């Protein structure tokens, strides 16, 4: 039996306290970043309004979001067109077959211009291919370098020289090599895809090689002694001791590599006119319509978001495979 | 004592340094019988660990050599299992898996899967760690880690058990528990043990003989003290035993009067 005259103010105070606590808990992780973004958008819009380029006014966030909507609806339209094309083709073929069951029918792929969304997937596919190629080379190489001081000393100068080379320097060489060596009448992969993927691989080898080497070389001598006392074979030693012990460093390398690879890919696509987001940007730049700058800005933001998502994905994988659940990963 | 089981003859080792060769050990001679418990004691840096590593095969002696059961020791192997000072368990494996790694490696083709499992369980039980077998090393205390380290070494069924300051990093109570466990295990299995220690009480309590090492460089065996206390030994009873105190005093006298303490 509570007295409402006393109970109500107490309840009010508790409610208020709870609200304050909620704000205190969630303000830093959610409200602060939102504030930062909002402030950035305001500054951007304000500045953009005052900049005139030869392609019209520099796009602010409003124009960019408009362009984003435009690009998505263009993609949807293109998809409709494509499915309509296939439908027509199927009908035509069916009609041909009905008339003459032995008639030779042809199925042609739709040849429309790739849309923004399709370019995104091309880029993702290419970067993953390059990253996988690089990892398959870099992790074993790093393990060998970490295990053997001799091999490390022999290879280290090469690593140090090739590491700082820009992707754009590799690109012409890779292009020529792919054209010269990948000769096939019925190619499984497009040459442009291989060129981009190999360029990405060449540039994102190094962080993984170096971090794996450091990780393997830094394994506790006691653990190596355990392995020696047990007379583990080299393969078992690598599998049971070296790989798990170096895994955190390997993942650090892989994360750096994927980030590098994504940056390299955009540059490579722009220069080499290989399909992907880089080509999209270059095409828009060459196109020079009043919408171009806005579309390029959309691409810039999408590139950033995808890069961020890829990094989070690697972090997630690292958490999944990490044996040290107490390690703070960020 | 029965015939010699492990023999160190004229063992010496030089390490290359910037200033030329550094002679860490010189002319170490030691004969150990089967089932004997021997402690190595001496000041820090006197080369105790080096002796142990040479017996383990992790270091190669420059002069002299080690013979175990008539065969020269020239590489590490599971018949000379090592219990490391800081446990050296693989942090990504559970306690059970840590022991399993050793058992699989040593008994591949000799034991069936079931026999291996029983043997692992048996060794975990021996160190009283059955309850934590599925925990990772990071989830158990320092003393427990060392117990698992001992279980792993015992599971190799070694001819000689080498222990490098196994209880050095533990608090006094935990250390006493582990010493009791070690005495139990030694009584049951009769392993030959070489243990490095800094702890005079530990040396007297556990050993049949205490090998006292002179200070380096060119360290060697200074003196050997035979501890003739009958087993099983009881910590509390020994506290009132005058012989225990005499042995203790003898070791202390060697360490602090006959050997100058190196600048700490």
From TrEMBL, chain A:
GO biological process: transmembrane transport
CDD domains: TM_PBP2 (cd06261)
Subcellular localization, as worded in the UniProt entry: Cell membrane
UniProt topology in membrane: Multi-pass membrane protein
Domain ABC transmembrane type-1 per the UniProt entry, residue ranges: 120-314
Keyword Transmembrane helix among UniProt keywords: yes
Matching InterPro entries: MetI-like (IPR000515), MetI-like_sf (IPR035906)
Record key words, sorted: Cell membrane, Membrane, Transmembrane, Transmembrane helix, Transport
Keyword Cell membrane: yes
A cellular-component GO term for this protein: plasma membrane
One Pfam family named in its UniProt record: BPD_transp_1
Regions that span the bilayer: 26-47, 124-147, 168-184, 196-220, 241-272, 292-310
Family: Belongs to the binding-protein-dependent transport system permease family.
Stated name of the protein: ABC transporter permease subunit
Taxonomic source organism: Pseudomonas xionganensis
TrEMBL record, chain B:
Species assigned in the record: Pseudomonas xionganensis
Recorded superkingdom: Bacteria
Keywords tagged on the record: ATP-binding, Cell membrane, Membrane, Nucleotide-binding, Transport
NCBIfam families per record: ntrCD
SUPFAM superfamilies: P-loop containing nucleoside triphosphate hydrolases
Keyword Transport: yes
Localization of this protein: Cell membrane
Keyword rRNA processing: no
SMART domains (alphabetical): AAA
GO MF annotation: an example: ATP binding
Family of the protein in this entry: Belongs to the ABC transporter superfamily.
Membrane topology: Peripheral membrane protein
Residue ranges constituting the ABC transporter domain according to the UniProt record: 6-240
GO cellular component entries: plasma membrane
InterPro entries hit by this protein: AAA+_ATPase, ABC_transporter-like_ATP-bd, ABC_transporter-like_CS, ABC_transporter_ATP-bind, NO3_transporter_ATP-bd-like, P-loop_NTPase
Protein name, per record: ATP-binding cassette domain-containing protein
Main location per the UniProt record: membrane
């Amino acid at each position: 039996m509570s007295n409402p005259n006393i109970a109500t103010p107490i309840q009010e105070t508790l409610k208020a306290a709870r609200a304050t606590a909620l704000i205190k808990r969630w303000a830093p992780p959610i409200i602060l970043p939102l504030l930062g973004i909002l402030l950035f958008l305001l500054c951007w819009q304000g500045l953009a309004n005052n900049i005139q380029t030869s392609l019209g006014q520099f796009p602010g966030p409003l124009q960019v979001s408009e362009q984003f909507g435009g690009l998505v609806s263009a993609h949807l339209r293109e998809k409709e067109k494509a499915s309509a094309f296939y439908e027509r083709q199927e009908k035509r073929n069916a009609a041909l077959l009905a008339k003459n069951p032995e008639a030779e029918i042809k199925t042609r792929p739709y040849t429309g211009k790739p849309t923004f969304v399709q370019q995104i997937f091309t880029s993702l596919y290419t970067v993953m291919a390059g990253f996988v190629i690089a990892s398959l080379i870099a992790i074993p190489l790093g393990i060998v370098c970490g295990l053997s001081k001799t091999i490390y000393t022999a290879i280290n100068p090469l690593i140090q020289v090739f590491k700082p080379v820009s992707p754009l320097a590799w690109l012409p060489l890779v292009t020529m090599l792919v054209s010269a060596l990948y000769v096939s009448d019925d190619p499984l992969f497009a040459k442009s895809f291989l060129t981009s993927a190999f360029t990405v691989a060449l540039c994102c080898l190094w962080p993984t090689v170096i971090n794996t080497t450091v990780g393997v070389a830094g394994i506790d001598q006691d653990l190596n002694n355990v392995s020696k006392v047990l007379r583990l074979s080299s393969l078992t030693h690598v599998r049971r001791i070296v790989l798990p012990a170096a895994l955190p460093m390997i993942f650090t390398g892989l994360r750096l590599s994927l980030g590098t690879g994504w940056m390299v890919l955009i540059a490579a696509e722009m220069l080499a006119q290989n399909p992907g987001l880089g080509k999209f940007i270059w095409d828009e730049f060459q196109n020079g319509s009043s919408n171009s700058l806005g579309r390029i800005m959309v691409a810039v933001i999408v590139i950033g978001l995808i890069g961020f998502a890829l990094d989070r994905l690697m972090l997630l994988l690292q958490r999944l495979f990490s044996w040290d659940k107490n390690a703070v990963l960020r | 004592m029965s015939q010699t089981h492990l023999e160190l003859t004229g063992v010496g080792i030089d390490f290359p340094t910037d200033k030329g060769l550094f002679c860490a050990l010189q002319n170490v001679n030691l004969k150990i019988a089967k089932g004997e418990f021997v402690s190595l004691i001496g000041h820090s840096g006197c080369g105790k660990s080096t002796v142990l590593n040479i017996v383990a095969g992790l270091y190669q002696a420059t002069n002299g050599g080690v013979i175990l059961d008539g065969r020269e020791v020239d590489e590490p192997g599971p018949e000379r299992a090592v219990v490391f000072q800081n446990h050296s368990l693989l942090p990504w494996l559970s306690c059970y898996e840590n022991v399993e790694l050793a058992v699989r490696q040593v008994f591949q083709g000799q034991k069936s899967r079931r026999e291996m499992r029983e043997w692992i369980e048996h060794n975990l039980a021996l160190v009283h760690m059955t309850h934590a077998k599925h925990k990772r090393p990071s989830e158990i205390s320092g003393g427990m880690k060392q117990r698992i380290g001992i279980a792993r070494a015992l599971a190799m069924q070694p001819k000689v058990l080498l222990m490098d300051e196994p209880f050095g990093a533990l608090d006094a109570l935990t250390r006493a528990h582990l010493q009791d466990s070690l005495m139990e295990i030694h009584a049951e299995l009769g392993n030959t043990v070489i243990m490095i220690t800094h702890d005079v009480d530990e040396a007297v309590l556990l050993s049949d003989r205490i090998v006292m090492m002179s200070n380096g460089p060119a360290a060697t065996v200074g003196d050997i003290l035979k501890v003739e206390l009958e087993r099983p030994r009881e910590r509390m009873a020994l506290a009132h035993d005058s012989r225990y105190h005499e042995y203790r005093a003898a070791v202390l006298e060697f360490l602090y009067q006959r050997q100058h303490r190196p600048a700490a």
